[in-house]
UniProtKB/TrEMBL annotation, chain A:
Belongs to the ABC transporter superfamily. Energy-coupling factor EcfA family. ATP-binding (A) component of a common energy-coupling factor (ECF) ABC-transporter complex. This is Energy-coupling factor transporter ATP-binding protein EcfA2. It comes from the Bacteria.
UniProtKB/TrEMBL annotation, chain B:
Its main location: membrane. One of its GO terms (molecular function) is transmembrane transporter activity. It holds the Pfam family CbiQ. Forms a stable energy-coupling factor (ECF) transporter complex composed of 2 membrane-embedded substrate-binding proteins (S component), 2 ATP-binding proteins (A component) and 2 transmembrane proteins (T component). InterPro entries: ABC/ECF_trnsptr_transmembrane, EcfT. GO terms for cellular component: plasma membrane. Transmembrane (T) component of an energy-coupling factor (ECF) ABC-transporter complex. Unlike classic ABC transporters this ECF transporter provides the energy necessary to transport a number of different substrates. Keywords: Cell membrane, Membrane, Transmembrane, Transmembrane helix, Transport. It is found in: Cell membrane. This is Energy-coupling factor transporter transmembrane protein EcfT. HAMAP family: EcfT. Belongs to the energy-coupling factor EcfT family. The chain crosses the membrane at residues 45-67, 74-99, 111-130, 244-263.
């Protein structure tokens, strides 16, 4: 499902002394089936953009097109359930949204709200608990008895159980241990590929953006200042520096390698594996330094 | 929705009202609450309303903002208005709808009580909008000082107050966040029949309680590790400073009370 933000502007607490402008003239196209990373410094407006993707916030200027549905500034949109069914958001620290007596009921909450039959919702919950690597028997426990990492997984399962077409992730792995991070990010990627999801990842981690995304948008000071293919964005170190961002570690290492050895690698290394491969290739081919 | 609420919020500024000593402002508001009850006819209520609007003007808070932020209070006000309108008897019968009779006295009472409500809410809002929570607590602690003699834990009370005031905006933000997360999962608090709405409150309240308790625990730990042990022998960084303007404001209030008394019937 396509999402198109057209010259979106947004101010929090409009018309009060606390009014604060968060977005100015943001135009961003998220094509169906793409994996888009939104990167930017703290306070750049990433999270505000994200809340426009399923009409939790309605623009104060411009318009947002979500699939067929158009959300415009100045009009009060109603019946947003359809939109929210199709666009699932995993918020930052999603474990804060857990509330039900058992993990099972909590995961079923979303699907049931959207009219999924109970049996189907239960089936999805059971399958997801396994996919997310939660121990069996967790289903009947209270979500508040789980560890932080498990709570996070349950909360994520609660969003995935809605089986949205578009999955929006806001720093979904913040505060998890490195291994848990990787597992969960890999799971999202697998779902993205298997089910043809459209994925939007809001992140501080250039490494995650480089590894998973195919398109990257840079937010800065409430504006979307650059969008492009992941390689183009991360190859342009000068531009990243302008927005107080650094290229991913692999790219930094590649640059250093190239500088020290005088060799040039074939392509921009977006993952450690790819970097290792290109280095090995360059070394075994016995390329001449330029 | 939440961001428009102004209960317990503080808007920094530099109006005359902002600069008054918190002790003066608190005393002022408390006396004012008593004085409001002097009013009992059209003139006195008009004076009351005028005086309150003057205070709003002096505090440089935009009236529109104040009214917008106090919307929930107006619902309560409307409720009391109609209660009085329908259930007070006396005076001439104005009109009757079905079995409900509306009397002149009921209309009068309804309007008066609403004005009373309005000025009370406005005045107390001005206090919290123009005084930082910390100064309010400092003020209250000093004002309650004499009660220490009868073993009233004044410092602790003041601390409790400042903590609750401090956490109102935090909890508001949190409510907004959780609300959005649940809305994204298809729960809809803002619409639908009453029964549905009530049911939708549970997924909001439980996470809110959980996080409030967590916060309380974290705060207690943080205070403990920094060696907090109550008010005994504790010195102050912020000193309160009573000036001529403060005395003047209280004198003005006394004069105002006299005026009301004079026009009272």
């Amino acid at each position: 499902m396509d999402i198109l933000l057209k010259q979106v502007g947004y101010s929090y607490a409009k018309d009060t002394p606390f009014e604060k402008r968060a977005l100015t003239d943001v135009t961003l196209h998220i094509p169906s089936g793409s994996y888009t990373a939104i990167i930017g410094h703290t306070g750049s407006g990433k999270s505000t953009v994200l809340q426009h993707l399923n009409a939790l916030l309605q623009p104060t200027e411009g318009s947002v097109l979500i699939g067929e549905r158009k959300i415009e500034a100045g009009t009060k949109a109603k019946n947003l359930r359809d939109v929210r069914k199709k666009v699932g958001i995993v918020f930052q620290f999603p474990e804060q949204q857990l509330f039900d007596e058992t993990v099972l009921k909590d995961i079923m909450f979303g699907p049931l709200n959207f009219g999924v039959p109970e049996e189907e919702a239960r089936r999805r919950a059971i399958a997801l608990v396994e996919q997310l690597g939660l121990p069996e028997g967790v289903l009947e426990k209270s979500p508040f008895d789980l560890s932080g990492g498990q709570m996070r997984r349950v909360a994520i399962a609660g969003v995935l159980a809605m089986e949205p077409d578009v999955l929006v992730l806001d720093e979904p792995t913040a505060g998890l241990d490195p291994r848990g991070r990787r597992e969960i990010m890999d799971l999202f990627y697998r779902l993205h590929q298997e089910k043809g999801l459209t994925t939007v990842l809001v992140t501080h981690s250039m490494e995650d953006a480089a590894r998973y995304a195919d398109t990257v948008a840079i937010m800065h000071g409430g504006k979307c200042v650059a969008t492009g293919d992941v390689r183009d964005v991360f190859a342009n170190e000068e531009q990243l520096g302008d927005y107080r961002l650094e290229p991913p570690r692999t790219v930094r290492m590649q640059r250093e390698f190239e500088e020290k050895t005088g060799l040039t690698l074939d392509e921009l290394a977006l993952t450690e594996e790819a970097l290792a491969r290109s280095i090995a290739q360059a070394l075994t081919e016995g390329r001449e330094p330029k | 929705m939440m961001e428009k609420m102004i209960f317990g919020r503080f808007i920094p500024g530099d109006s005359i009202v902002h600069r008054l000593d918190p002790r003066a402002k608190i005393l002022f508001v408390f006396l004012f609450i008593a004085i409001v009850f002097i009013a009992n006819n059209a003139i006195t209520y008009a004076i009351l309303l005028g005086f309150t609007l003057l205070a709003v003007f002096l505090s440089k808070i935009r009236l529109y903002f104040l009214i917008n932020g106090l919307k929930p209070v107006f619902i309560l006000m409307a409720f009391t208005f109609f209660l009085h309108l329908f259930f007070t008897e006396g005076g001439a019968l104005l009109f009757s709808v079905g079995f409900v009779d509306v009397y002149e006295e009921g209309l009068r009472q309804g309007i008066f009580i609403s004005i009373r409500f309005l000025v009370l809410v406005f005045m107390t809002s001005i206090l919290t909008l123009t005084t930082s929570p910390i100064s309010i607590t400092d003020g209250i602690e000093v004002l309650l000082g004499p009660f220490k003699r009868i073993k009233l834990p004044v410092h602790e009370l003041a601390l409790m107050m400042s903590i609750s005031l401090r956490f109102i905006p935090t909890l508001m933000d949190e409510t907004g966040k959780i609300l959005k997360a649940q809305m994204a999962r298809g729960s809809d608090i803002g619409s639908g029949p009453i029964k549905e709405r009530v049911k939708a409150v549970v997924p909001l309240l439980i996470p809110l309680f959980v996080s409030a308790f967590k916060r309380a625990e974290d705060l207690a730990t943080a205070m403990e590790v920094r060696g907090y042990r109550g008010g005994e022998g504790r010195t102050r960084y912020r000193q309160l400073n009573w000036r001529f303007m403060d005395t003047l404001s209280l004198l003005l209030l006394v004069g105002f009370a006299g005026l009301l008394w004079y026009f009272r019937s």
